[in-house]
Write a structure and sequence with these properties.
Blueprint (H helix, E strand, L loop, with lengths): L14 H16 L4 H8 L3 H8 L7 H10 L5 H19 L14 H9 L2 E6 L10 H11 L5 H14 L10 E7 H5 L5 H15 L4 E6 L13 E5 L7 E6 L4 E4 L2 H17 L3 H14 L1
């Protein structure tokens, strides 16, 4: 989640900005340098350097290169990753997408803005179908069930918002989605049997797309490493090269922005995937559950 009001323009902190600023901070401290040294290299104020390291302002490529030169970064892969991160952050800040039409759902806007510029999503879900694969009736039933909204005029914007996100799975450069679902998510009767039957039909149709991969972790798998929480890894380049992790809690959204967190959850996702059914067998299980309804 962002720490400031989005209306404050370029001083708003972003997930990608914080990730970039944190990495530059670690590089500076690793060299034993202080903020005035960075300010001199950028011909800027110490205040600006502080804002960069807090993720509050975008960073141009020449500035990234200047700081990397100052911090003795000789690994081309590290420089390329930082440049990619700076570019993604600039694109995120410039975005004025459809999600801004839903001020009542502002808490979700940071995630959707990142989803809009991402190249890939890997999501592990314990108890529900992920938003990118939901039908309107399923999303509506979720909104009713969570109890946060009670009136149709409050619920329908949420449903519209969720459906609009799914446009990222189509087009010339579609988002690559890899969804691993626990079998309980297929059997939870959200909205009743008819809604779930249609929902599972939709998941099967989406799984036919070349950019959508669906696996199911069956109940018979027993104890597994994903039992504690659901999470989503958002990628902006090749998986693992530039990732951030999103975790939903009952009261808020949590962003895990460090390399350590990204690596850990990437490996965790891989372990869960290996324990799950292959895609073909996952489709068969989804079909069986649907027929049982």
């Amino acid at each position: 989640m962002t720490g400031n009001n989005p209306e404050r323009g370029k001083t708003v902190t972003t997930v990608l900005g914080r990730r970039l600023g944190g990495e530059l901070l670690r590089l500076r401290e690793g060299c034993g340098l202080r903020q005035p040294h960075a300010a001199e290299a950028l011909t800027a104020s110490v205040t600006k350097v502080a804002k960069i390291e807090r993720g509050q302002v975008p960073l141009r490529d020449p500035d990234v290169r200047a700081l990397c030169h100052l911090y003795n970064v000789t690994d081309d892969a590290v420089l390329a990753r930082l440049l990619s991160l700076a570019k993604a952050d600039r694109e995120r800040r410039k975005a004025r997408g459809w999600w801004n039409q839903y001020p009542q759902l502002r808490a979700m806007s940071e995630y959707v803005a990142l989803e809009d510029i991402a190249t890939g999503i890997r999501t592990w879900q314990l108890s529900m179908i992920p938003g990118l694969l939901q039908t309107p009736d399923y999303a509506r039933a979720l909104a009713v069930g969570n109890g946060n909204w009670t009136e149709p005029h409050e619920i329908e914007p949420f449903v519209e918002f969720r459906m609009a996100r799914q446009s990222r799975l189509a087009g010339a450069a579609p988002l690559h989605l890899w969804a691993v679902l626990h079998e309980s998510a297929l059997r939870q009767l959200v909205g009743g049997p008819d809604v779930m039957r249609d929902q599972l039909t939709h998941v099967l149709a989406m799984a036919d797309r070349p950019n959508v991969h669906v696996q199911v972790l069956p109940l018979i798998a027993g104890a597994h490493p994903g039992m504690t929480s659901a999470f989503t890894v958002v990628s902006f380049a090749e998986p693992g090269a530039l990732d951030v992790v999103h975790v939903d809690t009952s009261s808020s959204s949590l962003w895990l922005e460090s390399d350590t967190d990204a690596d850990y959850h990437g490996r965790l996702f891989d372990r869960i995937s290996r324990l799950s059914l292959a895609e073909r067998n996952s489709v068969r299980l989804i079909e069986a559950v649907r027929k049982g309804m």
